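Q: What structure does this chain adopt?
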Amino acid sequence: MPEPVVFIRGLPPFLEHPGASGGMVDDLKNIASLSDKQIAEIRTHLTEADGFLDPKRLLAVIRKAIEDLELAEAVRRVFRNLAPAGVEQVTKALERDRDDEDFPFEQKTFDRLKQVLSELVQPCPALTRFQKAERLAKVTGQQLESIELICDLRPIFDENREDLEGMMPYTRLHIVATGEDGLPKAFEAELTHQQVLDLVEKAEKAKSKLNVLRQSVETWLPGRLPDLPLTRVPRKESSDE
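A:
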């Protein structure tokens, strides 16, 4: 039975008012503790980074300037969730809540936070390239959630439904993909024996093409393949269970 899905239209309250999100507040407090030297070093390393800054590489680059893992993780989350154009929006949203009794920042910390965010979150080509790759992976088609080939036998009875006169083998292709609305959509089709063989042959050809494409790209654009589920080479061959 499929898992229940709750569809929310519009922004949740914690996005409209970042101060209400405990995790985000903790990260921002950590960000406010950065020194000018650390900010400058992070900016230098990010500017010098080539290729695609996926989350793993992004953390490695940040840790060149910050040894503390918790602080480095906070910086990474800020870069992953906050674009340069969104800095002013976040600070203004926090500013609206500054007069509240439960405002989580002291005035000195909040002023430092605004300064750090404006200096730290600047355009970074390697990070921008990865974000473009992530976006392309999502907009070029419906994302596959699962695919199953179900093989079974269907009984053939006599007219009185008393005797079993034969069996009919069948194969059903069951596909679940993410629709444009973010909800799962299922599709099923019955395959003939020949269509199953054709599917295997086409999959083998696709594997060969992917290998050639990867080798070609790595030859004339070294390091220019983003590390995403869409492009990642599986560690081992998949197997049916």
